[in-house]
Design brief:
4 copies of one chain form a homotetramer. By secondary structure, chain A is mostly helical. Chain A has 19 helices and 4 strands. A two-stranded antiparallel ribbon of chain A has the order 1-2.
Amino acid sequence: MGSRLIDSLATTDALADVFSDASVLSAMIAFEAGLARAEAAHGVVPAAVADAIARTAMPERFDAAALAREARASATPAIAFVAALRAMVAEVDPAAARFVHWGATSQDLVDTAMVLCLDRARRVLAPDHNRLLGGLRALSEAHRATVMPGRTLLQPAPPITFGLKTAGWAASVARAGADLAAAFAGARQLQFGGASGTLAMLGAAAGPVEATLASTLNLARPAGPWHTHRDRLAALVSALGVYTAALGKIATDVALLVQAEVAEAEEPGGGSSTMPQKRNPSGATIVIAAATRTPALVAAYLSGAVQAHERAAGGWQAEAPTLAAIVQACGSALSACADMIAGLTVHPDRMLAHLAGPHTVVFAERLSALLTPHMERERATRLVREAVAMTASSGRPLREVVAEVPEIVSALPPESLARIDAPEAYLGEAESFRRRLLAEAAADWEV
Amino acid sequence: MGSRLIDSLATTDALADVFSDASVLSAMIAFEAGLARAEAAHGVVPAAVADAIARTAMPERFDAAALAREARASATPAIAFVAALRAMVAEVDPAAARFVHWGATSQDLVDTAMVLCLDRARRVLAPDHNRLLGGLRALSEAHRATVMPGRTLLQPAPPITFGLKTAGWAASVARAGADLAAAFAGARQLQFGGASGTLAMLGAAAGPVEATLASTLNLARPAGPWHTHRDRLAALVSALGVYTAALGKIATDVALLVQAEVAEAEEPGGGSSTMPQKRNPSGATIVIAAATRTPALVAAYLSGAVQAHERAAGGWQAEAPTLAAIVQACGSALSACADMIAGLTVHPDRMLAHLAGPHTVVFAERLSALLTPHMERERATRLVREAVAMTASSGRPLREVVAEVPEIVSALPPESLARIDAPEAYLGEAESFRRRLLAEAAADWEV
Amino acid sequence: MGSRLIDSLATTDALADVFSDASVLSAMIAFEAGLARAEAAHGVVPAAVADAIARTAMPERFDAAALAREARASATPAIAFVAALRAMVAEVDPAAARFVHWGATSQDLVDTAMVLCLDRARRVLAPDHNRLLGGLRALSEAHRATVMPGRTLLQPAPPITFGLKTAGWAASVARAGADLAAAFAGARQLQFGGASGTLAMLGAAAGPVEATLASTLNLARPAGPWHTHRDRLAALVSALGVYTAALGKIATDVALLVQAEVAEAEEPGGGSSTMPQKRNPSGATIVIAAATRTPALVAAYLSGAVQAHERAAGGWQAEAPTLAAIVQACGSALSACADMIAGLTVHPDRMLAHLAGPHTVVFAERLSALLTPHMERERATRLVREAVAMTASSGRPLREVVAEVPEIVSALPPESLARIDAPEAYLGEAESFRRRLLAEAAADWEV
Amino acid sequence: MGSRLIDSLATTDALADVFSDASVLSAMIAFEAGLARAEAAHGVVPAAVADAIARTAMPERFDAAALAREARASATPAIAFVAALRAMVAEVDPAAARFVHWGATSQDLVDTAMVLCLDRARRVLAPDHNRLLGGLRALSEAHRATVMPGRTLLQPAPPITFGLKTAGWAASVARAGADLAAAFAGARQLQFGGASGTLAMLGAAAGPVEATLASTLNLARPAGPWHTHRDRLAALVSALGVYTAALGKIATDVALLVQAEVAEAEEPGGGSSTMPQKRNPSGATIVIAAATRTPALVAAYLSGAVQAHERAAGGWQAEAPTLAAIVQACGSALSACADMIAGLTVHPDRMLAHLAGPHTVVFAERLSALLTPHMERERATRLVREAVAMTASSGRPLREVVAEVPEIVSALPPESLARIDAPEAYLGEAESFRRRLLAEAAADWEV
C-alpha cells in the first residue's frame, strides 16, 4: 500500500501520477535511452545499447522500493538505477551493458528526469488554468452590474461590483499564470555535463551528442551544465508560489463570502461527518491549505539552491521532495479553485441588502466629500459623524437621515441628497477597471 | 506503484511505513474502535458496534486511493472513511452501523489518528537517537587527547581536541533530544470534542467516554479539545526542526573534515556513477539535505497553526503533509547521522599535521598574549605579525622563527618560547569543557 | 533620522529601545566591563582596565553608524567596537588599554550582548503577557453562560459559550507562554570561549574567570561555549513563533467576530484615512500581521543554525536581524492583543440571535442524534434534511418546524422537541472544559 | 540613537538610507504632492493644496517616532501622517488643508511610497550588479586556461578551468539579474484606488487624475488598483531571493577555496579580535549570511500575499518590514560579493598542485573510459581500482603507476598513457561552455 491518504488534499490523482515511481522511472529510462541513441548517432557507443534499453527497460521491471533503499548508500537513486538498467541490458546484450550511462553523471540523469516530470506536470495544470480563467471571465461579465459592498480590513466600505472583484481575481491569475508559463518554459533545459560538467569523457563528440540528446528529449540545450546553478528551477518554484498565492486570495474571499452571516455566495460545498446542515467551503479550504504550505516550500527550495562547487553535498539532494510537493500543492489548489468557481452560486440580492438600511453608513465618505467644499472640515466631520451614528442606530438609510438635518439640507442640492446612498451612483471607475483587468486576463495557456 | 523514489533520501523504510496508508488506516480504525468501545462501556451505543468494527475493519479492505479522491469533495478524508467503515459494519450488523463515529467529528478522528502515527514515529526514532548519542560519546572518549586545529570562519584557529568537538556535538543532540522527547510526550493528547468541541451529543456520558477513550488509546486527556489550538503539535514540529539542525551541524563539520585537502576523517561513503575514485560523504549529504528542508517545514506548520474559530478552513487541512514530511526528514537525517558516526574513520595524524610547520601560525594569539604584558601593544603587534609572516612564508614552525628574533627572545623565558607552538600546551579548558558537555549527554531516550 | 516608520507595526517603542544602538552598546560594554572585572579578580589583568572602562565607556560615545560600516570589513561589529573601546580606555589609562577584551573572542562579546538584550526583551513582554492572560480569564468568567454559535470551516455549528472560546484562547496562550518563559530562561547563558572555545589564553584562571563573569552578568554558566551550537536560541525563537501563532488565532477569531455582518464583538478600533464610518480591527490586524511574519523568521533562524566547526562563516552572522525581528514581532503582537482583549466589547444579544430563527439549523445534529435510535439511518437522515431545509427557507425555528412533522412528533417525546433548539440545553461539556482550560491558564509569568 | 548595529551586516549605508524615515517620508510627501497637483490639473481640488505642500512639507518636520507610535492605533502610519501633513498645510493655507489626500486611501499612499523606495533601491543595486558582472567576466577571461579540480559532493573530480567556474557564476548572476531587473520594472506601478478601489470620490475626473498622477511620479498606470493583488511585488521579492541565492553560491565556493588547506584563492579578508594571523573570508561570510536569511523572507512575503477582499487585515500590514529586509539583504550581499570578486587573489599553482601526485586519482574516470572498450567491465573496473589505490598510497602520479601495469600498457597506446593525467588534455567542453556562458552574461543593467 502506498501513501496517498496523508497527501489526500495536497495533490490530485493526475499529479500524483506524474511524480509516481512509474513516471519517474519512465523519465529516467527516457534519459538513458536518449543518451544511448545520441551517442550511437555520433559514433561514441554501439547502437546496440539503445536497442537493448528499448527492449528491456520498462518502469515496472524496477524495484522502486529497493532503489529508494539503496539510494541512501550513495545519496542518489541514480547509481542503483543505472546498475539495474545495466543488468537488464546485459540480459539481452552483455557487450552493450558497459556503455550504459556513458559519459553522464548521476545528476545528469536525475535532473533531466525531473525536468521531464515537470513538463508532464505543466501539461496537467494547463487545462485547469484555462478553465479557471474562463470561469472567472464569465463570472465577471455576468456580474458587471452586480453591486456589493467593498470590504477593507473585513469592514464594509463603499460599493464595488462583483464583476470588478472577479476581474481582479482573473487578472492576478493571468499575470501570475503568464510568469508561471514562462518559468516552466525556462526550466525545460537538458542537464548534461558528465563528472565535472565538461563532458570530457566524450571527447570531440561531446557537443554533437549534447545537441542531439536535447532535441531527442525535446528540451533546450543550455549554455552549459547547471548542476549547481539552480536559478531557473528556483524561478519556477517561485512562480508556483506566487501563482498559488493568487489562488489563495480568491479562496479567502470566497470563504468569507459564503459565511452564513454574509451568504453572498455559496460553494457546491462538502458535508460534515456529524452535522447534517453543513455545507462546507471545501474547495476554498483546499486552496487555502495549499496557499498555507507553498510559501515555505519556496523557501525550502531557495535554501537548497546555494550549492557548492560542481555538485552539492546537501542542497541538491533536498530538492526532489520540495519540487514534487510544490507542483502538486499548486495543482491541487488550481483544480479545486477551478471547480469552486465553476460551481459558485452568487446571491446579488444579499449583496444589495448589505448596502441598504443601516449598511448605508458606507456612503459616509461620499457625504463627507460633498460637504467638504461647503464648510470647514471640523463642521463637516461632525455632521457626517452624527448622520452615521443615526443611520446605524435607527437602521434607516442615510438618505432619510440626512434629509432631516437642516445644516446638510441647506448645503447640498436635493438631487445629491436623494441619491447619496444609491450604490450604482457611487461606483466610480469600477466598470472601467473591470474591463482593463479582463483585458489582462484574455490569453489562455497553450495546452 | 507508489512514490518512494521522489522521497528516497527524505525518509527511511520504517518511517515511510509509519505514514503509509496502511498505518494511517490502522490508526483511524483504532480511534473508531476505541470510541465505540468507550461509548458502549458507558451505555451510549450498543456493544455490537465495537464488535462489528473489530470483525470487519482492516486497513487492506479500504481503497485508500478512492478515499483520497473523495477527500477532495469534503476537504477531509474522514467522511469517506467513516462511510466505508459504516458500510463494513453494516455488512455484519446493519443496526450497529448507525452508531459508528457516534458523537465524534471528522477532526477528532484525523487528529487522533495523526497523534497515534506520531507516537509510532517516536518509537522508530528512539533507537537511532540512542545509537547516535552512544557513538558520539565513544568518539569523544576515544579522542579526548586528539589535537586538531580549531576552525573559525573556515580558517585555522588555535588547537582543540576532537574529543571536545564531538562532545559539543553530543551535548547539542542531547539537549535538542530532551526537548524533542518532551514535545513528543506533550503531543500525545486525545482529540475528542464532537461537532463544536463540547461533546454535546453525548450528554452526561461525555466526560466518562472521553476518559475511557483516552486510556484505551493510551493517550493523555487534555483539558479540552484542541481543534484550533495547535501549540503542542507546533512545539513538536519546532523541536524536530531544532533537533535536525543539531544533526546538520555535525554533518557539515564531517563533510568539511572529509574534504580531500583536509582528510582528517573519512565517511564509509558512497560511490559515483562515473568516477571510480570517489568516496562521497553520503551520510553527511543526506543529513544536510534534511537540515536544508526542515526549517521551512517548521514555518509551513506555524503558518497553518493560526486557525479560525472551532475548526479551521485551510490551516488545519495543510498540516498532514507537513507533519509527515518533517518527521521523516528528521528520522532520515538521524538514521544517516548515526550510521555516519558509527562508521567514521578519524585521522589524528592529519589533524596533528595541520598544527605543524606553517600551520603553527595559529599560535600567534599565544605569542601575542605572552608579549603584551612586556611591551606596548603596537610593538607586540608588529613582532607577532612579522613572526607570522615568516612562519607562513618559510614553512618553518613558529618556535624556530621566534627563536631568531632578539626582541622576542629577550622578552620571554626560553621554556615559553620552546613550547610556544605545542598544541597540547595550549588546550585551555578543552578537557574540562569536554567532560561537562558529555555529562549533559549522559541520558538516553526511553525506547 | 532612524528608521522607525518601516517597522511601525512590527515593534513597540519599548522593544525598539531594547534593540537600539544604545541598548546594544550598553550590553557590549557590560560584557567587556564584566570581563575586565572578573579577570582582575583572578589576577589576569590589572584592576585598572575595569576602572577605565567604567569611567570612559558610555554608549553615546560610540559612533554606531561608523561601527556598522566597519563591521562589513570583518563580518562582525565586535572588532571596531573593541578598537573604539580600547581607544577610550587609552585616553585615561594607556597601559590598561592593551588588556581590554583579554582572552575573549568577538563572538563571546556579541553573543553575550545579545543574550543580555533578549533578557531585557523578556522583561518588556512579561507584563503584557500577564495583562493578556488576566484579560482572557476575566472575559471567560464574565461570559461563562453567553451562548454563541460554534463555527467550523467558517460555517455555523452547534452552540458553545463565549466563555469556552476565551478559555481556549487563555489556555493556549498560557501553554505557549510557559514554554516561552522556559526558553527565555534556557537562553540566559554566558558565551565565553575565546578564539577556539577553549579559553586557552587564560591558562589556569579560565574556569574561575568564567564563573565570576557569569555571576557578574547574572547569566548561567554553560557546560561549554556554544558558538556553533545554537539549540537554545533556536528553541527560544521557536517558542516565540508558537506563542505568536497562539496570539494570531485569537486575533483571527476577533477579526471574524467584528465583521459588520457578524457583529458579535467590537474592537476599540482604528479609523480610516477616508471613510468616516470605519472602525477597523486595528489590534487584530497588528497581531495577524505579526503571526504572518513569524513562521518564516523561525525558519530563517533554523536555516542559519547549522554552523560549521568552531565559528560559522555565514549562519551566525545571519542571526542578529532575525532575533531582533522575531522578538519585536512577538512583542508587538502581544501588546496589541492585550489591548484588544482589554477593550473588547461583546454583544451577547447578537450571539444569541445567531442561534435563533433560521440559524437553528445548527441543531440538526441534535435532532439526528435523537432520531437515530428510533429508526433506520436513511429515514432519520431524510427527515433531518427536510426539517433543515424548511427551517432555512421559512426562517422559523427548528422546534416549530419539527412540531409539524408527524413522523418526528411520533418518534420523540414532546419535551425533547420543545427544547430541540434551546442553546443552553445543548452545551455538553462547555462549562467543564472551560474550567479545566482556565485551570491551565492560572499562572502568571514572574515579572 | 537609531538601530544600525543589529543590522550592521544586513544592509549597506546606501540601502539603509533608502528605507530610513527621511526617505519614506519623502516618498509619502511625493505621493501627496503629486496627487494634489494631478487633482488640481483636472479641477478636483484647488491648486493651493499642492503649493502649500510644496512650501511646508519636509521630511524633517515630521516626528517619525510619533507617527510610528500612532500607527499602532489604526494599523497604518498613513492616518497620522496625513493628519500631520494637513496641519502643516493648514499653517499656510487653512482652506486648502481640507483637500489634502483627497479621494485617496491610506494604502494608496503607503503602497506608492514603497514603490518609490523600491525604485530608489534598484538604483543603488544597479552599479554593484554591473561591477560584479564585470569582475566575473574579467576573472573568467583571465583564467580561461587555469586548470583546477572539479569538486563534487566536496570531493575531487576531473579538472575544470577556473574560467569555466567563474563563467558559471557570471551566467547565473546575469540570468537571475535579468529576471530581477524585469521584476523591478514590473513593480513600478502606481497604487491609486481610493476607499474601495473604484476612485468613486473623484467622479468623472478619476481616470485623468490617475493618468496624470502616474506620469508625475514616473510610474506605470496599472489596469486597476492592486491593493490585495500582490503578485507583482511577490515576483520582485522572489527574484531578489533567487538572485541572492546565486550570490550565495559564489560566496560558498569562495569560502571553500580560501580554506587554509585548499588555499586556491584568497579574499582581501577581515581580521579577528584575538587572532593576529587570521584572514577571514568576510565578504563571503556577509553574502552567505544574506543567502541564509532571504529564502524565509520570500516565504514571509508570500504568506502575507493572500489578502482578503478589497484591503487586508494582516497580510498587507506584514509586508513593509519584509520588503525592506530582503532588498537590503540582497544589496548587502551584492555589495560584498562585488568587493570580494574585485579583490580575489587566485593561486593557479595551488590549483594545479591539486591535480598532481596523489590527486591524479581524479583521472580514474578517464582511464576507465579508455579501458572499457577493450575489456570486460569487471576487469576494467578492477584495474582502475588498483591503479587508484596505488596512486593514492604511493603519492605518485597515475601515469607512472599505470606505466607499470602490463594489462593496462598492453591495452592502450603509449601516448594515451603518457598523458592520462594531463589536466589540459581532459577539459572536454570547458572552453566552449565558458564562452557560451559568458555570452549569457554580456549585458549590464541600465543604471
